[in-house]
Write a structure and sequence with these properties.
The structure is a single chain. The protein has no helices and seven strands. The chain has strands spanning 2-4, 7-9, 17-20, 30-37, 46-50, 56-59, 65-68. The chain is globular, with a radius of gyration of 12 Å. Helices cover 0% and strands 37% of the residues. It has one domain (2-68): SH3 type barrels, CATH 2.30.30.440. With 84 residues, the chain is mainly β. A hairpin with a 2-residue loop joins strand 1 (2-4) and strand 2.
Amino acid sequence: MKELGSISILRATPGDRLIVHGHRLGEPQRDGEIVEVLGVDGAPPFLVRWSDDGHVSTLFPGPDASVEHLAHGEGSGRAGDARR
């Protein structure tokens, strides 16, 4: 994740996993595969295929989201692991 002042910008590549955490206690998280990165240098918005229903949508993730870098053999695979 790149810091820009007090704003954090997620970075991703196709094949990464996007996780949107629940907003309320007991609300489940939602996750999906990033199919395409529509921003510059891995920045949002992302085209995401959601794992719960297979729907594909464009998303500009908020502060409740993180990225797991899974399909690249780089990084630790932990949520929020930054790409540079």
